[in-house]
Amino acid sequence: MSSTSQKHKEFVAEPMGEKSVMALAGIGEVLGKRLEEKGFDKAYVVLGQFLVLKKDEELFRDWLKDTCGANAKQQGDCYSCLREWCDSFL
Amino acid sequence: MVDLSSLTDAQLKSQLLHYGVKAGPIVGSTRALYERKLQRLMAHSSQFKFNGTSDAAKYSDSEEDEGEEEEEEEEDEEESGSEQLGPESVSRTETSATARTVGLYSQSKDLIYPQCFSPALRQGKKRGSLESSRSSSQSFSITELVEEIENRLSPQSKPAATERCSQMPKEKRVLWDLQQLNKNTMTNTSLYLTPQCLPHQKQTTTIKPACEPVTDILTELFPDTVTTPTGITATKRRSIKGAAGRPVQFKYLETPLSPATLERREIQHRLVPLWVQIVVFLLLAALLYLIYVSIEDPLENPFSVLLDSLSDEPALAPSSQDVSTSEVAA
């Protein structure tokens, strides 16, 4: 993750409001669908899981892999995106 | 291993804390993750436990587990997996080298010794292999070995005899030792193991010494840990609890001279005696009284002067007024 993606920047720039889960960096169409199936339809639901895991990277990555089968890069993108969002808005 | 799914949330949390992980809330969506984490930690810690001197079979077993886990975790990054395996296999060869030298004993006895045993074990094994043809029925125990060394060093043992022994050729020495000691204890030749003997020992390292399981568990658990001149201390590694016991003993010795009393005594040493204090107090009191008395007289003077000047002033003022009125009148 040498440079942050456009999606990451957009997400981190503002409060997430009612953004869909697919607005999260690292979560695309496929992973977004899977997450929605499991009930994680909004970005803030994922944020809730992220927070209940105490922002622990290892656990969150683990969870993301379990829930939607994200690969290492996607896990990392999503994690850093949420963490930065928390840093600026929490 | 404990079935993690049967633990309550609180138990799971305390277990995680035991491994130094401060778990967050354990709820439906997080419990599985924490269970997995605990499992991993357990596997990790047990692997560390066996890492030192366990046999190669156990080690490779745990390594396989690790490999699988790695695969699970890093599905997309195979390169990192191979990287991870690299150092592990190196360490495996390292430990398996020691395991080869030590393992014969630990395998056959089904006992795991902590790392500090290994040098003694190695020597013991070499010696054991030397004697295996002669004394295959003898059982081997580290504590007995240590006791043996102690016995030999105690003043009761004849120094002349040990000297004689050390001068004897090796084969005879062993036999002599066997005669000297009771039948349950193995002889200790580690004192006399010199580099000259090593080639001979290396030839026989492949011979697996016959040994019986150690029966004397109590002496095994509580060996008298007196340091030996060989520098090999065959002490069972104690748990933290056991180690914590030692300072308590130390404290009991110290109770009559607890730090507080010591401090008090030191302070008492520094304090001046009571009569000196009284004398000083009286002197000060006398001095203050003298000062007061001497000040009393001169106090009157300035005030009297002041009072005099005050009483003079009203006398002066009317005279000046008189002057001015007289001038006006003029």
How do you describe this structure in short?
Chain A is mostly helical. Chain A is 63% helix and 0% strand.
Structural notes for this entry:
Chain A: GO terms for molecular function: DNA binding. Chain A: It is found in: Chromosome; Cytoplasm; Nucleus envelope. The complex is a heterodimer of chains A (90) and B (330). By secondary structure, chain A is mainly α. Chain A has one domain: Barrier-to-autointegration factor, BAF (DNA polymerase, domain 1). The model of chain A has no long low-confidence stretch (mean pLDDT 91). Chain B is mostly helical. Chain B has a domain of 46 residues: Transcription Termination Factor Rho, Rna-binding Domain, Chain A, Domain 1, CATH 1.10.720. The longest helix of chain B is centred in the last third of the chain and has 56 residues. Classes of the chains: A mainly alpha (90), B mainly alpha (330).
Task: Say what oligomer this is.
Answer: heterodimer
CATH superfamily of chain A: Barrier-to-autointegration factor, BAF
Could you give the order of the helices and strands of chain A?
A: HHHHH
Termini separation of chain B (Å)? 130 Å
Query: How many structural domains can be distinguished in the coordinates of chain A?
Result: 1
Per CATH, the class of the domain at 1-46 in chain B reads Mainly Alpha
Query: Cα-atom Rg of chain B, whole angstroms?
Result: 44 Å
Keywords (chain A): Chromosome, Cytoplasm, DNA-binding, Nucleus
GO molecular function, one term (chain A): DNA binding
InterPro entries (chain A): BAF, BAF_prot, BAF_sf
Subcellular location (chain A): Chromosome; Cytoplasm; Nucleus envelope
Outline the secondary-structure elements.
The complex is a heterodimer of chains A (90) and B (330).
Chain A (H helix, E strand, L loop, with lengths): L5 H8 L15 H9 L5 H10 L4 H12 L3 H18 L1
Chain B lengths: L8 H10 L9 H24 L4 H18 L4 H32 L8 H14 L10 H12 L5 H9 L2 H11 L17 H6 L13 H5 L18 H15 L4 H12 L3 H56 L1
Helix pairs in contact in B: 1-2, 2-3, 3-4, 4-5
